[in-house]
Every structure is written in structure tokens, then in C-alpha cells.
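Batch job 17 of 40 flagged for manual review because the log was empty.
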Amino acid sequence: MTDSDSNTTPCWIYRSSRKDEMYLYLAREDAFDDLPEALMRQFGNPLPVMELELHPQRKLAREDVEKVIGNLQNLGYHLQMPPNLVPDLNDGQTI
């Protein structure tokens, strides 16, 4: 093991079966029994996406990698919420 290997955090990522663009990062593969029951009810069936080795220099598309690593180390998981989308609102009038 090199010095850089000791600075990595393994991570398993799952997507929600209920909410588009909601992802769950886990410190241990398939460690769903350790998660809050309310979280799992809202998340639905976890669908595996990928496994990553996280380190402070790694870039993630929509999350702060240091926050994710901290949550994995302290909580055992990190929940990535869907981005804030602004829906097209219809005021009921037709054009």
C-alpha cells in the first residue's frame, strides 16, 4: 500500500428507485441495515451505480468530496439530493 492509498476512502454509490437524481454513498458495500429507517423508506430500493475510491483531490460532479468523505467516516453514508429544479409553471391560461 502506498501513502496515497492510505488517504483514500472506499465508497459505494446507489441511486434511488423513487427519486430521480437522488444518490446514496455508503462507506461499506450494501450496508443498508445501518441506515435510518425513515431514510430508506424515502429512498426506496437502492440500485447500484458504481464503486469509487475518494480522496480530497478527486472531483465529484455535484458534491464536495471532503463533505462526502467526512459523512462516510462519521455517519457511514452520504445522501446526495436531486438538484433544485425550477419547474415550468402553468397559470392555467392557454396561449
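Reviewer: the log was empty due to a logging misconfiguration, but the result itself is present. Residues 19 and 43 are 7 Å apart (CA to CA). Unflagging and moving on to job 18.
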